Amino acid sequence: MSTPFVEMRGISKHFGGVLAVDQVDCTLHAGEVVGLLGHNGAGKSTLIKILSGVYAPDEGEMRVHGQPVRFNSPRDARAAGIETIYQTLALADNIDAPGNLFLGRELLTRWGTLDSARMDHETRAIIQRLNPNFTSIQRPVREMSGGQRQTVAIARALHFNARILIMDEPCAALGPAETRMVMDTIRRLKAEGLGIFLISHDIHDVFEICDRITVMKNGGVVGTRDVKDVTEDEALAMIILGKNPERGDHAPS
């Protein structure tokens, strides 16, 4: 096996007397989509915030591309090639795709003015790579469909050399056509060798796009399974009951 993009070993995080993440192991390889599953409060969001630099773990070790890392801020995680695309997308609704792509990192001409032509060109290039049918990039984001908004958020991450994406409910509130657009984009990224953590409550989407699932409950990992080796019903049992069909055990209550 090649060196994983991400290794998290024995990760724990306390908030006062609450153990939010308990001795979690998780890995992600190049060209792989790993679904993180579990009810609200299972520990998924805390684990992802540790990987994205929002929280520091109290215990455990993280490696990125085989190198030990400890992030003190999201800036550190981004410098390591990790980008998080939250459900809210964090886009500025009143400006267009190039404006969002380069927001806070605008390109300038040699005279110190905004290089709008270059920003437009680079935005078109990366969005065409993700979604060849998305051409109206100069409309304000608020006028775009949900799938197009997701494409802008993903393009922003990729333009700054992310190789590891964390996607939080990317298809939430999208219709079937928009969901298909986002799923096709994820497939393209996977084919390009990116590693993706996908948080989703839609078990059908997870089984369609993911290679493995890691199920969490009560802060711990119930189990990690290859999608091809587990049924949707077994995955639901892992989520609801904390039961791993490989071992028949239960997550701590």
How is this structure best described in words?
This protein is α/β, with parallel strands linked by helices. The protein has a domain at 6-81 and 163-241: Rossmann fold, CATH 3.40.50.300. 32% of the residues lie in helices and 25% in strands. It has 8 helices and 10 strands. The strands form 2 sheets. Strands 6-7-8-3-9-10 form a 6-stranded mixed beta sheet, sandwiched between helices. Helix 4 (116-130) packs across helix 5 and helix 5 (146-159) packs parallel to helix 6 (176-191). The two termini are 34 Å apart. The relative contact order is 0.17.
Query: What is the architecture of the domain at 6-81 and 163-241 at the second tier of CATH?
Result: 3-Layer(aba) Sandwich
DSSP E strands, number: 10
For the residues shown, what is the average pLDDT? 91
Structure class: alpha/beta
Cα gyration radius (Å): 19 Å
Relevant terms:
253 residues; alpha/beta; Rossmann fold; six-stranded mixed sheet; 8 helices; 32% helix
Helices, strands, pairings?
Layout: E1 6-15, E2 18-28, E3 33-37, H1 44-51, E4 59-64, E5 67-69, H2 74-79, E6 82-85, H3 97-101, H4 116-130, H5 146-159, E7 164-168, H6 176-191, E8 195-199, H7 203-209, E9 212-217, E10 220-226, H8 232-241
